[in-house]
Design goal:
Elements lengths: L8 H13 L4 E5 L2 H8 L14 H15 L5 E5 L12 H11 L5 E4 L10 H12 L4 E5 L4 H6 L3 E4 L10 H11 L3 E4 L4 H12 L4 E4 L19 H7 L5
Parallel strand pairs: 1-2, 1-7, 2-3, 4-5, 4-6, 6-7
C-alpha cells in the first residue's frame, strides 16, 4: 500500500479502532494542504486559526515527519491524495510536493478522512466509542474551544493557546504534556501540535498518538469545513454518547 492507494475512510477507521482496542502502539499523522504550503513555501500564509507558516515551523514539522519516517514505530499516515477536498483532487504543484514529502517514506497509508465527521458511518462512531471506553490515561491537546471534545473522549485537556507563533512555545507544551503522563495522546493543536506530539512520542513510544485536527469541531459548534455534517445530524449519530 503506497501513499496514493489507501483503504476507504471507513476501512481506515476500522484499522484505527482495532489498534486502540488491542492497545497496539502507533502514531497516526496527517499532513494536509497547510503543511505542504508551510514546508515548501514558508512565510507566505497562515492557517484559518492564525498560525503563521514561519521558517521555524516549516523546519520543525518537516523534522517531525522525518523522525517518524526513520523510526521503528508503526506509523499510520493519512494520505493527502485520498482527501476529497482541497488540492487533494490533483493540483499539480501540490501533488509534486506531496510526492517529494513521501518519497522513500514507508508509513502504512490510510485514508486522510478516516476520522473526519463528513459522513454518517457506524465505523466512525465505533472509533470514537473505542476511544471513550479506553481506560488508559488519555490527553487531548488543543485550544480551549476543544474542551467539549476532551470531555466527549473522556480525556484530560492540555490547553494550547491560539497564538500565531505556537511553535515558539514548543518546550513549554511538551513539558505540560509530560505532566499528564498520558498513554493515549489525541491532538488538534495546529501544525505545531504535530511537533509537540512527536517530541513526546520519542520519549514515550509505547502509547497511541492520534492527529484529530479539527475532526470533532462540528459536533461542538465549530464547523470548520463545508463538507462536515450539521451538528443536528451528528448529535443523532452519536446519540447515547453525548
Amino acid at each position: 500500500m503506497n501513499a496514493t492507494t489507501t483503504p476507504t475512510a471507513d476501512e481506515s477507521a476500522v484499522i484505527l479502532t482495532q489498534h486502540i482496542r488491542e492497545k497496539i502502539p502507533f502514531f497516526f499523522i496527517r499532513y494536509g494542504d497547510g503543511a505542504l504550503e508551510c514546508i515548501f513555501d514558508p512565510g507566505k500564509r497562515q492557517t484559518c486559526d492564525g498560525e503563521i507558516y514561519s521558517e521555524e515551523l516549516a523546519a520543525a514539522i518537516l523534522d517531525a515527519w522525518g523522525r517518524l519516517a526513520a523510526s521503528q514505530t508503526l506509523v499510520l499516515g493519512g494520505s493527502w491524495q485520498s482527501a476529497s477536498f482541497g488540492n487533494g483532487s490533483g493540483n499539480n504543484r501540490d501533488v509534486e510536493r506531496w510526492q517529494a514529502l513521501t518519497n522513500n517514506v514507508f508509513f502504512t497509508w490510510i485514508h486522510f478522512e478516516a476520522l473526519l465527521l463528513m459522513r454518517e458511518s457506524a465505523a466512525l462512531v465505533d472509533f470514537y466509542r473505542a476511544i471513550r471506553e479506553d481506560k488508559r490515561r488519555k490527553v487531548y491537546m488543543g485550544p480551549a474551544k476543544n474542551a467539549g471534545a476532551a470531555r466527549f473522549l473522556r480525556a484530560y485537556h492540555h490547553v494550547t493557546p491560539m497564538v500565531p507563533d505556537l511553535i515558539t512555545q514548543r518546550e513549554r507544551l511538551v513539558a505540560g504534556l509530560e505532566a499528564f503522563e498520558p498513554e493515549v495522546v489525541l491532538y488538534g493543536a495546529g501544525m505545531a501540535g504535530n511537533v509537540v506530539a512527536v517530541d513526546h512520542w520519542e520519549r514515550h513510544p509505547g502509547g497511541a498518538y492520534i492527529s484529530l485536527g479539527s475532526a470533532l469541531d462540528p459536533l461542538f459548534g465549530h464547523k470548520s469545513r463545508s463538507q462536515q455534517l450539521p451538528a443536528a445530524v451528528l448529535r443523532k449519530m452519536f446519540r447515547g454518547m453525548l
